[in-house]
## 1
Amino acid sequence: MACKRSTLEVGWSQRELQAATLAATLPDDRPALLAVAAGAVAALHGAILAGDESAARAEADRYDAVVWKLNGGRFSGCRSLDPEAGGNLSEAH
């Protein structure tokens, strides 16, 4: 008998799947990914100022996909002490 998965686990799996799907459309090299991250932040800022919730969510998802891809296809550890972690790389850029 399989155990039921918690809501958190299901949500996390959906987030990972969404990031993987979006990441497949992104470039593979670091400089290009960092440029996408910067573009997503700028577009997110504009969407928020314009009150466009749908566009803001799309840009936040795109940024997350970049972080996920920079971090080797996972969110776990993307904000660790490692300066090469995906979240740290994108923030530093």
## 2
Amino acid sequence: PEPIENAIVPAPKMAPVEFKLLFTSYERVRMAKARATDETLNDFFSIVEDPRLEFVDLGLVSTQDALNYLVYKGYIDQERKGEILTGIVV
């Protein structure tokens, strides 16, 4: 069979701990400190850390909105957002 061009690849879904490992140690520490004063950041990570959450879907609009917020606030840059959306822990 011939390859299908422009095939839609589903966005990765990953365990919450794996999702957090997509961020560097520096990024995680910086955001952990900022959670005390940044309600939006705290809200997002409180959902990620909820023990009932089975996986983080990188294709969800809410997840992408949260990553856009992280870029807007300077916690990560646009390039890092793209790397995070691959779902590959490096």
## 3
Amino acid sequence: AGAAGNAETYSPVDQIAGGAGTDTLYVETDANLSFATVTGVENLQVSANTNAVTMTLANDAAYKELHSLNSTSNVTFDNIKNGDVNGAIIATANGTTVTYDYLGTALTGATDNLDVMLSAADGDLDITGVTAANALETLTLNSVSDGELDDIDLTNANTTKLVITGAGATNVRGIT
């Protein structure tokens, strides 16, 4: 979809079906998008250019990777239906927030984990949509290059374990 000077070409009525192997859908946008008609695509990547962007996720829950790349505005991955996803925050601007918003029944196991790869990540990380019965037990941050998260918001996530790993130096200024 639209990069600088180009019109949006992706529409929520577009039918996108991934094939065999691992498929990636990358979208540069400044508008909210629905991936409700996307099927069989494992990697969903977004670059929010100007405005905050909410990505309503595919109904088939085939996605395994949800990435914010080079975003200068907030990105929300909304209505995550799959408890077995990984995230990435790559080269984001300071002052931005990446939100992983789970559907109320996505995290039904006792060992749910969100693994977020950080590469030159800046800004905030928020986890929403979780409850005591639908908890994200573990948040793993895998830092592959230096960055700084101003805040990790785990309010109501009932997260009991935070793992920080990787070769990069990522400062975490606060956890709420």
